[in-house]
Design brief:
The structure holds two protein chains of two kinds. By secondary structure, chain A is an alpha+beta fold. Chain A has 27 helices and 49 strands. In chain A, the strands form twelve sheets. In chain A, strands 8, 9, 10, 11, 12, 13, 26 and 29 form an eight-stranded mixed β-sheet that branches. In chain A, helix 12 runs antiparallel to helix 13 and helix 23 crosses helix 24. The radius of gyration of chain A is 37 Å and the shape is elongated. In chain B, the strands form two sheets. In chain B, strands 3-4-5-6 form a four-stranded antiparallel β-sheet, with no helix packed on it. A two-stranded antiparallel sheet of chain B has the order 1-2. The two termini of chain B are 17 Å apart. The C terminus of chain B is likely disordered. Classes of the chains: A alpha+beta, B mainly beta. The structure holds FE2/S2 (inorganic) cluster and zinc ion.
Amino acid sequence: MTQPGERLDRGRVITFTFDGKPVEAYAGDTIGSALFAAGRRTFSRSFKYHRPRGLMCVSGSCPNCICSVNGASGARACTEPAREGIDVRHVNALPSLEHDAMRATDLVGGPFTPPGFYYKTFIRPRRMWPLYEKVLRHAAGLGKLPATQPEREWRTEYRRRHADVLVVGGGLAGLHAALAAAGAGADTVLVDEGPAPGGQQLVTGGSRELVGAVRAAGVEILERGSALGYFDGLVPVWQSDTLHQVRAAQHVFATGTIEQPLVFAGNDLPGVMLASGARRLAALYAVSPGRRAVLATTSDRGLQAAVALRDAGTEIVAVADLRPETSALGRSLRAAGVPVFAGRTIVEASGGSVVGRATIAALGGGAELSFHCDLVLVSGGALPATSLALQAGAQTVYDRASGQFELSELPAGVHAAGELARARCDEAIAASGELAGLRAVAALGRDDRGRDDGRHDDGGRNDGRHEAARDVVRARIDELEARSPEAPGELALAPAVSGAGRGKCFACLCEDVTAKDVSQSIDEGYDSIELSKRYTTVTMGPCQGRMCQLPAVRLMAAETGLSLGSVGTTTARPPWVSVPMGILGGRPTQPARRSAIHDRHRELGAVVRWAGDWRRPYHYGDPQAEALAVHEAAGLIDVSTLGKLIVRGPDAGDFLDRMYPNRFSNLRPGRIRYGVISSDAGRIVDDGTICRLDDETFYVTTTSGGAGAVEEWFSWWLAGWGHRVRLTDVTQGMAAVNLAGPRARVIMSEVCDLDCSAPAFAYLDGRQGRVAGVPCLILRIGFVGEVGYEIHVPAAHGVHVWDALMAAGERHGLRPFGLEPQRILRLQKLHILVGQDTDSESTPFAAAMPWIVKLDKEQDFIGKWALRHYAQRTPATSLVGFTTADGDVPTEGAVIVDETGTPAGQVTSSRHSPVLRRTIGMAWVPTALAQDGVAITISDEGRRLQAEIQTRPFFDPDGEVLRS
Amino acid sequence: MSFVLTCPNCGPREVTDFGFGGEIGARPSREPSFRELNAYNYFRANVAGRQREWWYHRSGCRAWFIAERDTRTNEVHFTRLPDDEDPAGEAMVPAGSGLAGARRERAAGTRGWDLR
Ligand code: FES
Ligand SMILES: [Zn+2]
């Protein structure tokens, strides 16, 4: 029979596997409903005792159905949609759910795992703790982390959403709130964590039209999304693999209440379910939760579920209604032939692996009644889901009439709706939703939270144009507020525990904490709810207190004789739902930066690696041969990743004079100078070459990683100084390649319209000319030590120029080379890599570049004062080159040690040089040792290497090759 | 930390769009003593309360601007471009320009080196 709220598409059968075995489901099923329909009752094994656990809440609010899906653990079977082909596995049972070897911890029983057990029992002797820990970690816990990196990969989409009103909870109240807010013109977002919006209406299918209207009103509905917390007005909403960062001016919390379990002997047996959970199973997924049910309830909520389940075909064998008199609903059930026992509750559920019998009795004892059944429905009151509101700064007080911790003070910009606002019947819930939505709209612009009152009004919504509409809103608010408050329905307060002494009565299913454990913790002195929480770990499991907060408070009150109100609740902390770490910390899906020539590198067989944000060719198969080719013929490397800034304006030269320790205002147009940027503390920040294009224009290159930071740095000083200078970042707009080697000039002459002879185009000349017909800026510089041309070309023509150079170079032995051979080549020249060979403490003096600091420069420049000071001091360590005696290549980062073995320095770069046929490197050493020929010792992962210092470049120390 | 900052060019954006440039302070106008230099480079006022500070719209228009923010509540009282008039009527620049001989004598603030 089709159920009223049914979500199944019975025409579509899908198959997935559970522990490797196929399971059939209808489209619309959850993993849990499909497994239950297939007869499964045990869904997990508990945290400590490995007791079998089955579906209980069917709403993702308890720990009982946690499973792993496609290797990711932490999914809730009862809410996770069944999808074709997924691989679902149980967690925390060895070898299988049906036969769990660790169950002994439960059956042997006794004081094997009382609270604080780990601390008390295993901490001595100390040296044994690592072993104990290993065993315990294996025995306890839920699920397993995937072992390898690829299995752990998680990409998170981040999305920011600014809105006027955020409504959390898509039940009757939330839907009406969203409808009212959107209807009054507010940009509204609604988050709902159920299988579909509708909340408790879902089981009757009664909210479909309303959801349609909300959608039609323009509300953005984040379905199956969970609001994780409230952080200064920012609400992260987790939806599949997206994290929405929702910032709204006004918040409406319509999060409803959570039906609570009862604490009695055997209350964790599979087959013991929340009444609402069983009802959802039947109504949404057309699964019969059981044939014969016993209900234990404290209010009409349980009775309503029993009536619905009876209609769906479950026999209600008996009802224990804790109220001294049952209600009208109870009487009508009685009239229909269901035995309804007032003033009774359940004291024990018993059976093997599933429930087979339920025993009910009055609280004070007396006659017991026992019934055969395969389902026990419990309804132990309601817990308002106040967590988010509390995080936003609301308070709660204990309300005797409702037996609940109700919201009392709401901070500005926060509104409660529905059951959170103490509405009970549908009509009141709908009205309270509408009221909250309208109040949020009325408050827009008045007490918006999290927005600054900058000059930018958000679209003029509050500028009076909507005055008329606002009057309507206000009138309606008055009308709704004038309604008389609703009398709370009758209810009985659930006992802290019933049937104690008959077996384990669980207060907290997540952490396997029994009522006895809580009592014991109080005896031991942990007599406040916050202390007990930390000692017993109750409320600290995956249910986040949804199922155990209230039971724990009740137990505490019963033991200490305090009222529930004075026991209080534990602090509400995010996240509201258990959330995969990947969602919070996963690498965002981030576009990689690729040069315009990237595809060509792929075709040439490049091994591509990450370099900062960039994907770069690391080499093309043989880095050593590529490095050799640059010395013997020619090489071509893509250096498009270099930062490129055009600094232009009448004050450009003056500006650069202030930004760099050396001079640029006297650089002739068409010439190039190397520059190191230093901070006001005299430390090296970045380096690069600067070419003067004309009187007012400089072409500045920076390191690949430093491009953004240098632009920020320059523009920050410009913001303060008011130089007549404009910065243009052309990093992405220009591709650049470096052609280098003894044959580079010949190749250049064939493709370039300039005279490339040595006198006409000398070292450190910068020329604008055409290469393969494309206008380019060509810089004669030599990072790699051979005659070289760095060709900057509009990105769109990058491939064309690359191809033309490769074609022209073919008969000259030209090879492409990657980042790795470039690193060998520059190391031969002792050219530093900022950030590799220098750190935040390195000064140009210590980095062996005193020549770059022009302290006699008439103007002030950034770093001048500090550098003047450092010029007079001997640095503690200096950057030098070294070579090892036996050719061993030390690890970068290896330590230089002195005679006593004390660390005294560090290797920053090291490579084997094919052209020099030896190992070379750079290192920081004590300045006293920084002289040619001094022997040093490198301690590298247990080995000792002997090395000799060399302060001049290993290759072409006088730069004759470069200048030729 | 989570709040919204209004870029004078682009409008309200999440704070994570921006780079923090530190509190506004003066670069010494004359050559400082070594002690003064270190104070300028490494010491911050760290006020608990309203503070003028630099922000950079890194994921937006890439402009530097000035904000007055309460460091205790993250409430932003105003933002403006360096050349705009100060809503509080204060001279933006603490006395003395950073660089002797700069075309317009306006100091830039101090800031630390952790550019990113
Ligand atoms: S039954 Fe799935 S979370 Fe409770
Ligand atoms: Zn901006």
